[in-house]
């Protein structure tokens, strides 16, 4: 997966406000990924953390879906209660499963899906509250195949 120069720019200019970054830099196109075709069957899944092991049945079922994230991943999402979502990226080449390191809840009413992502991008955008925290906002994560790394955010406490 090719990560573009915007990742380097956001690291170098991290002191710039999250809002400015979000409006001027963080777009799906800025973190491109080449979408691969699925030719072979899904390899045996490798659950890299306790969350992935706990939800292995959901993840095995989701792995049958088409590639929808970062070139060759299936981003599986599932509910964790009323108005709460969890997710994990399933590598269709290796079988490695990487859980999103937080839950998402309490997203704005005008948002129908709190997680935004595309097959041709390594950018994941989360709207709402992470881990049911009082801080709400929009969070921009880059996925490198092993880790979701926060690149920018726009937040407010208690809305």
What does the secondary structure layout of this molecule look like, with pairings?
Elements: H1 5-12, H2 18-24, E1 46-47, H3 50-54, H4 56-62, E2 73-79, E3 84-91, E4 96-99, E5 104-105, E6 115-116, E7 123-130, E8 135-143, E9 148-157
Largest sheet: 9 strands, mixed
Total strand segments: 9
Shape estimate: globular
From the N-terminal CA to the C-terminal CA, the straight-line distance is: 36 Å
Structural class from helices and strands? alpha+beta
Summarize the structure.
This protein has 159 residues and is α+β, with helices and mostly antiparallel strands.
Structure notes:
This protein is an alpha+beta fold. It has one domain (5-157). Helices cover 17% and strands 33% of the residues. Strands 1, 2, 3, 4, 5, 6, 7, 8 and 9 form a 9-stranded mixed beta sheet that branches. The chain is globular, with a radius of gyration of 16 Å. 33% of the residues are buried.
Structural features:
single chain, 159 residues, alpha+beta, nine-stranded mixed beta sheet, 33% strand, globular
């Amino acid at each position: 997966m090719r990560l573009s120069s915007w990742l380097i720019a956001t690291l170098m200019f991290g002191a710039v406000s999250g809002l400015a970054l979000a409006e001027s830099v963080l777009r799906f196109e800025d973190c491109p990924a080449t979408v691969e075709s699925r030719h072979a069957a899904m390899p045996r899944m490798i659950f890299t953390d306790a969350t992935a092991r706990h939800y292995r049945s959901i993840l095995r079922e989701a792995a049958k879906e088409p590639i929808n994230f970062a070139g060759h991943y299936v981003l599986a999402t599932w509910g964790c209660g009323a108005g709460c979502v969890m997710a994990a990226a399933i590598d269709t080449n290796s079988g490695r499963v990487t859980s999103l390191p937080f839950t998402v809840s309490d997203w704005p009413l005008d948002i129908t899906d709190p997680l935004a992502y595309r097959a041709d991008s390594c950018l994941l955008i989360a709207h709402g509250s992470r881990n049911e925290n009082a801080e709400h906002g929009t969070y921009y994560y880059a996925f490198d195949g092993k880790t979701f790394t926060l690149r920018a955010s726009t937040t407010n406490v208690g809305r």
